[in-house]
């Protein structure tokens, strides 16, 4: 029997609206044990709230998140606020006994993430996950299956990347994501790092050491009145990690960049091993590249993946998959796992993985100072 679950959103900005739209497209899923109903939305900015009136199931709009925490009919929260507020809001949600999908990076820095994880310890009654949707692209899942099967043999090297280019324009106005006090000293790693690390983590790849090159490429941007204000975040981060696999260590390169000319939200995974290889990039969302040696020839071949992801949808199998489909799939995984019905589907990132990502970002900050590889505890 399908069970209704009331959902509340805290933070009705870019991702709050994206999630509202995804939940409203739930009928696209062929079969799911849960039916989410967006019931409440909170944003401190009252001008953000009227947009959500278009969703018939919304019964509460508020500028105070405590109204949602105190609402017993809300079972699940989605929290998507600037990074300096993660700790306060996630701790409050835990204290109120709410299950939630929290946006990455789960705290502005490592100590904040540690405090969130400490609060979760002993709260086995709560179901909490970290938002990270990109591995739900069918090509990413196909790459994960191939690597997980062991078919590529001993891994020689792997690369995970998430690349943006919107910050190439130096006249783009400042916002909270470009200010260390609000976004964190980890800068772009806090924005894009969890996305790049989610799939490697699920494959069991955890770097024990990291060497990092961090670039602050734009020092100032126009502020609200047009005059220049400091833009004190790292735009680009290139990390070379050592993964100590059972059959030998290999380099895992993680690239997260806000200034990667030509790449617009390009998420990529690539791994080559002694017996094969695989590469998927959202720049070519329908195509997985596979490497094999056939009759002595070294062959990279293209496999078309189509639209079907972890949870089957009504979308024709030959059609293209996109970002909003990935968000829907992540929610399907979150609510299925919460209901104990994930089966073989790809799971959402866990709070423990969000903490592990912070440990890597922290090692990267240390490495940028020491200009040497730093251990990841
Ligand atoms: N999963 C993804 O692909 C993805 C993409 C972009 C951003 N994010 C993450 O989502 C989170 C939010 O990013 P965004 O792009 O939606 O930002 P945004 O600036 O568009 O929206 C944030 C919203 O939070 C509101 N807000 C601020 N303080 C609040 C409070 N105390 N209570 C309630 N609302 C409050 C703001 O008014 C704003 O509307 C961040 O953690 C970011 O890293 C994730």
Short description:
The protein is of the alpha/beta class. Helices cover 27% and strands 28% of the residues. It folds into two domains: 3-130, Rossmann fold (3-Layer(aba) Sandwich), CATH 3.40.50; 135-316 and 347-375, Dihydrodipicolinate Reductase, domain 2.
State the main characteristics.
six-stranded parallel sheet; alpha/beta; 2 domains; single chain; nine-stranded mixed sheet; 377 residues; binds nicotinamide-adenine-dinucleotide; Rossmann fold; 9 helices; Dihydrodipicolinate Reductase, domain 2
- Mean pLDDT, nearest integer? 97
**Rounded to an integer, what's the Rg over CA atoms?**
21 Å
- CATH-defined topology of the largest domain: Dihydrodipicolinate Reductase, domain 2
The total tally of domains equals 2
Largest sheet: 9 strands, mixed
Order of helices and strands: EHEEHEHEHEHEHHEEEEEEEEEHHE
Identify low-pLDDT runs: none
**Which geometry do the CA atoms define?**
globular
Helix content: 25-40%
Instruction: Report strand %.
Output: 25-35%
Structural class: alpha/beta
The assigned CATH architecture of the largest domain is 2-Layer Sandwich
| First-last Cα distance | 45 Å
Mind telling me the CATH superfamily name of the largest domain? Dihydrodipicolinate Reductase, domain 2
* CATH classification, class level of the largest domain: Alpha Beta
- Annotation, overall tally of beta strands: 17
SS element count, helices = 9
Give the ligands present.
nicotinamide-adenine-dinucleotide
How would you write the strand order of the largest sheet? 16-15-14-13-7-12-11-8-17
